[in-house]
């Protein structure tokens, strides 16, 4: 088929070329003999219609159900990347997770650090006791601030509202009792990585320290590392008490978890005291103020649940301020 079409086109080309040659010849003859050209000069091109401008305002909703994918919505302010991050699940296995993102077409959000609204709907059966987590869907701060030495960071303002509901893509919050009755095991947490090396600090599997702030732990399987040993420190932020637990994970990273006993669904405050107070502790293997913070994301470790649940985050802003000299 293809070859025949090419042959025909080649055959057609001959008469066209011949005709054009004749016309060009005639034209130059008329010009040479002072006659007006046979054809008028080409009219100025008619401007082609402009492509329709994208809507200036309004919102766009998108759904992402793949195993892992970085979604970086356009913004005029601070950039965030959302990721379903189903690191311990493969297509075809039981369970599902989708991230729904609501972006503003104009890229202008409530403040320069406001993130797009999103929701994460998921359902997984229980995994083995020693490997119970299927995914860590999250929203990461893509800030030029990272990596920054901890001593250079003056604030990490977090303005957050979230709810967990029962159902697919629901914005209706369920009670803790109802979530527990459906055997939900999950947390809602900020995850940070710290290392004395700039590159390692930006790599969640290589960084020496993982520092987390849990706003909720739901279900008996959801416990911070070192929980059984009891807290090593306590702090109150925005009226909420956080207790610090420490331990070492399977990858031999030092894990420090600020944990709250009751879910904190609304939080507005500076969490940098939860980082800086580590330097006052007496344990031996702790980050130092000259170490780098290289990564910060908010997400939910998805263990298991009987029915589809939805983490809805209608409000999120993460505002990190660091002295510029150390961010270069
Ligand atoms: C941007 O779009 C959003 C959503 O439609 C709207 O609420 C907001 O007022 C717009 N902002 C500007 C500066 O146009
Ligand atoms: C999720 O995203 C899809 C578009 O991909 C949209 O049709 C649907 O309405 C969204 N769901 C909610 C609850 O916003
Ligand atoms: C939620 O519903 C949508 C639309 O029917 C579907 O595409 C998606 O897979 C569902 N999400 C989950 C986690 O089951």
TrEMBL record:
Keywords, ordered alphabetically:
Carbohydrate metabolism, Glycosidase, Hydrolase, Membrane, Polysaccharide degradation, Transmembrane, Transmembrane helix
Mark out the compositionally biased spans (Pro residues).
38-55
Q: Molecular function (GO) terms listed? A: cellulase activity
- Per the record, which residues fall in region Disordered? 34-57
What name does UniProt use for this protein?
Glycoside hydrolase family 12 protein
* Family, per entry: Belongs to the glycosyl hydrolase 12 (cellulase H) family.
What GO biological process terms does the UniProt entry carry, in alphabetical order? polysaccharide catabolic process
Q: Where are the transmembrane segments?
A: 6-26
Q: Which Pfam families match?
A: Glyco_hydro_12 (PF01670)
């Amino acid at each position: 088929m293809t070859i025949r079409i090419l042959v025909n086109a080649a055959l057609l080309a001959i008469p066209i070329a011949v005709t054009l040659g004749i016309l060009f010849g005639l034209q130059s003859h008329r010009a040479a003999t002072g006659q007006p050209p046979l054809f008028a000069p080409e009219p100025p091109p008619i401007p082609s219609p402009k492509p329709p401008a994208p809507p200036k305002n309004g919102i766009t909703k998108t759904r992402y159900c793949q195993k892992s994918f970085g979604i970086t919505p356009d913004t005029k302010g601070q950039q965030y990347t959302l990721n379903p991050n189903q690191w311990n699940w493969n297509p075809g296995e039981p369970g599902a997770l989708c991230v729904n993102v609501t972006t503003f077409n104009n890229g202008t959000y409530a403040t320069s650090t406001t993130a797009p609204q999103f929701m994460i709907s998921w359902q997984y059966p229980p995994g083995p006791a020693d490997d119970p987590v299927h995914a860590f869907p999250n929203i990461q701060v893509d800030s030029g601030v990272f990596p920054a030495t901890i001593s250079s960071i003056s604030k990490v303002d977090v303005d957050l509202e979230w709810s967990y509901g029962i159902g697919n893509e629901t914005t209706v919050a369920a009670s803790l009792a109802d979530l527990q009755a459906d055997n939900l095991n999950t947390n809602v947490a900020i995850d940070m990585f710290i290392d004395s090396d700039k590159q390692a600090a930006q790599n969640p599997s290589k960084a020496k320290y993982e520092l987390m702030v849990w706003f909720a732990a739901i279900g008996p399987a959801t416990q911070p590392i070192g929980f059984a040993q009891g807290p090593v420190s306590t702090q109150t932020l925005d009226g909420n008490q956080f207790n610090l637990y420490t331990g070492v994970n399977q990858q031999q990273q030092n894990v420090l978890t600020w944990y709250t006993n009751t879910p904190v669904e609304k939080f507005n405050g500076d969490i940098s005291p939860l980082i800086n107070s580590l330097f006052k502790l007496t344990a031996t293997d702790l980050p130092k103020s000259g170490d780098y913070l290289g990564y910060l994301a908010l997400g939910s470790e998805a263990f298991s649940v009987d029915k589809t649940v939805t983490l809805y985050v209608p409000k999120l802003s993460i505002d990190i301020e660091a002295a510029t000299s150390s961010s270069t």
